[in-house]
Amino acid sequence: MIEVQQFSTGNLARRTICLLIASLSFTFTTSVIAGVKFEHSDTLWLTAGTGIRMQLDSRKSDFDNNSDLSFDSIRFYFEAQVHKYLKFYVNTDKQNHQSTFLMDALARFEFNPGINIWIGRTLVPADRIDKNGPFYSLNWNQYRQPLFPSGYGAEAGTLGRSEGGVFWGTTGRVHYALGIFDGLKGLSNQDNHLLYSARISYSFLDIESNPVYYSSSNYFGEQGDLLTLAFSFQQQSGGTGSSIQQGDFFGYTFDVLSETVLDDGGVFTIEAEYKKFHSDFTLATPPTAGLDGCFCLFDGHSVFATLAYLFPKVIGWGKFQPYFRYVENNPSDARTSDSVEFGTNYVISGNNAKLNFNFISGDNNASGYAGRDVDMFTFGVQLQY
Predict the structure, then answer these.
(1) Which residues are CB-neighbours of 190 under 8 A, at least 6 positions away?
(2) Residue ranges of the domains in the chain?
(3) Is the pLDDT confidence value at 5 over 50?
């Protein structure tokens, strides 16, 4: 059994207070210049916004025992409308000590709720947690399942993005997004096969209201009683392997989100997902000739479930939302890995301002294959405007 790290509570408290003060300072100094709309007319305007996620964690494993203050994400958003049916969007991100890089850059042809086309570098239609991004997740550590190829920050894309186009819209209770992208370029994809993706969701109760084809796992009861079931898939010939040995990739998911507003104003949330990947070359593939430069992926299935309850009473600035999450990854060619996360969000202003404290224990990660067994406490701050 792994022992939880022993750390100085006085030192942790001091660092936590410093982090909280820094987060509040960020709120007051940036709200004046971020999230601002410069409007010339109803169809000619520009907006700018920003978001930040930072955390202080203390971890213990068989290989390390340390604490760390890090920036998960620092983002800047720019959106503009130049015509009744034409907008454009640019989004940047910076993580820890990395350089700032371009996440999104696209032209948006938006005709009506049912017919819209996005072209450029944008989010590939996928499962809910991929479309949430980190800022709209229910828990703090949502990326402990295998990711789709565009999530690995390599030749196939970055943070779920790739170059291509998406045809999306809403009709009644159905929300759809159909995409064609470059996906993996080079390596096993010598014939320049395209990546095809889709997501279709159906709302049984109240209808989720999201910007475009993005999503959230936490509405805090603001959109009523929700029960949404979705199916998504991605496929690319030559999507795994090397320049000498080529293979195909296909993956699909079923995800569900239920949010129930109780009579006293409390909110009970359930989120769950089943994910299945078929990859001809995997991260557990034995080294063979031509696989030194392999773009190898996960093969197998994965499941997770999260339960959360938002208390109706405001305490101080916000409301407490404790949650529990279980994740299990089952590769076809390696041992099973899993993790549990106990935590609570302190919700000040929805997803725009919240604090999080959690404990996570397990050996799974975003590769889908087992890593080090780690116990970790985290205090996180999220702000955006």
Answers:
(1) 238, 243, 246
(2) 9-384
(3) no
